[in-house]
Amino acid sequence: MIRQARIGIKVGETDAAVTGLGVVPVLVNLAHEMGFFKNVDALLPPKEWERGYSPSASVFDLMLTPFTGGECLDDLAVLRADHGLERLLHRKVMAPLTARDFLRRIQYGGLDGLAQVRQRQLAYVARRSKQTQATLDCDASLFTSRSRTAQMSYKGERGWMLAFWAELDLVVHEDFRQGSTAPQGDALNFLKDTAAQLHKTVTQIYVRSDSAWHQREVIDYCAEKDYGFAITADKDEAVKAALMLMNESNHAYRIILLRKERRQGDLFEGIYTYGAILTNRELPLAELIAWHRQRCNCENHIKELKHGFSLDSLPSTDFLVNALYFRVQTLGYNLISALKHIKLPQTWRPFTLKTLRFRLFAIPALVVRHARGLWLKINRAHPYLPVLKPLLT
Fold this sequence. Notes:
seven-stranded mixed β-sheet; alpha+beta; three-stranded antiparallel β-sheet
């Protein structure tokens, strides 16, 4: 029987360039392939002096924090002390104070620039994957903020409206808003802004949403633009409202009524609850319901942003700094999605950042210089070396 014995060790120190982040060259090279560094430097506000960290290096370091398991800006100090990572990047990771100064410096121009960088990310992944269809899953969520001036939700949190490209698992657009703003607020403009982010190679757009977008102007706009849509009306009273909405519209729509037995009977409402799906698609009934319910995967994307990318707690008391930080992390989210869709085997696409970090990112390696080159020495017995090695060569 194998038992665990007590471990007696002696601790020594070394100056060897050892890192637990052997996958970093893969992420850097993919970002270069996408034009990420060039785009960030071109689109973000320039520095007054040509010294220190470039905008692209600063943004990449902020993205690197959740990639490596960090949860806040202070964790940059740990990455900064990694000698092996320094040798791989040919520079030190920026300090936490430098990161805060960078976010405060770029301000509103930074928000616009980062949005344009993300738009170019979407175009690159769409071209590489030859994807001409975009299903937009839109939902609102709350993210904890420490700002004293925030207009809070009833939970004391700030809100975001998010749109995901379902086929490619990409963040298309986000709107940082006060937590007191209703999810249905300004829905039509958000939809227009989201569609405008897509590359011209996208020829068909579909929209899926919950009852927050159950609005006449939204569904009429979808019909006018020939967007296929399915929108929920998930309360009993909302079913009546859906019928009223159809009567007021100039377009012909299809409404699917759903009946579900209550988990607990209601003395006044009966044993059933009713819902509806409002759509303009002509799919078979079961197929349409299944397709509409796939929008629930949007919740998993939001969960990944909150917990995988550590956005469940935002870093600043400043509204704009939080908005910038959030947008930076959506770029990181899209970089990981690009890695899964373009570089990794198809079976790896469902994996979360946590799984990727455990299996692939946190591979210990020795970084050495030899024969005028940089070598990454990895244990040949590592089970996922056959996956990592082709990405590095």
